[in-house]
Amino acid sequence: MKREPIRIYADTSVFGGAFDEEFSKPSQQFFRQVLEGRFRLVLSPLVQDELAAAPEQVQRLLDEITGGADLVRITAEATRLQAAYLSSGILTDKSSDDALHVAIATVSECSVIVSWNFKHIVHFDKIPLYNTVNRQNEFTEIAICSPREVIEYEDEDI
């Protein structure tokens, strides 16, 4: 029995990670599994804007993957949730775009957000704080992971 693909929001770092020596194998495996239908990728204008000045190979990957992705808007609800993350002290205003990525993924009802941003998003101290704010604002919790944690592994070592 084939299961429904998991809705996953990928932030900007995952696209750049596909061409970074340290993160390329799991990032590329993640995008392969998106194209194979294991995941339903969710993208936002924030990701598109942040990648507008990225190297050509990153932009090509975004173009290749966008056709099969769900493109969501940045809603007033998402910006309110972003503000709640900031006012709770999870992040400072300097990292407001990182808070917005998490807010967009949450409001868009993604099961997971994947990122290589271990300072502001995928951090053991911050994940429960994001989810506390989500519950306080009547949203469900969201899993926050690196691509390495969500991919199905092939025989090769990743």
SSE layout:
Layout: E1 6-10, H1 12-17, H2 24-35, E2 39-43, H3 45-50, H4 56-66, E3 70-71, H5 76-87, H6 96-107, E4 112-114, H7 126-136, E5 143-145
Parallel strand pairs: 1-2, 1-4, 2-3, 4-5
Helix pairs in contact: 5-6
Keywords:
alpha/beta; Rossmann fold; 158 residues
Element pattern in H and E: EHHEHHEHHEHE
For the biggest sheet, the summary is: 5 strands, parallel
Please tell me the overall pLDDT: 95
Shape: globular
Number of helices: 7
Percentage of residues in DSSP E strands? 5-15%
CA distance, first residue to last residue = 28 Å
Helix content: 40-55%
At the fourth CATH level, what is the homologous superfamily?
5'-nuclease
* Structural class determined from secondary elements: alpha/beta
* Tally of distinct domains: 1
Structure, described:
The chain is α/β, with parallel strands linked by helices and 158 residues long. The protein has one domain (6-149): 5'-nuclease (Rossmann fold, 3-Layer(aba) Sandwich), CATH 3.40.50.1010. The chain contains seven helices and five strands; from the N terminus they run E-H-H-E-H-H-E-H-H-E-H-E. The chain has helices at 12-17, 24-35, 45-50, 56-66, 76-87, 96-107, 126-136; strands spanning 6-10, 39-43, 70-71, 112-114, 143-145. A five-stranded parallel β-sheet has the order 3-2-1-4-5, sandwiched between helices. Strand 4 (112-114), helix 7 (126-136) and strand 5 form a beta-alpha-beta unit. It is globular, with a radius of gyration of 15 Å. The model has no long low-confidence stretch (mean pLDDT 95).
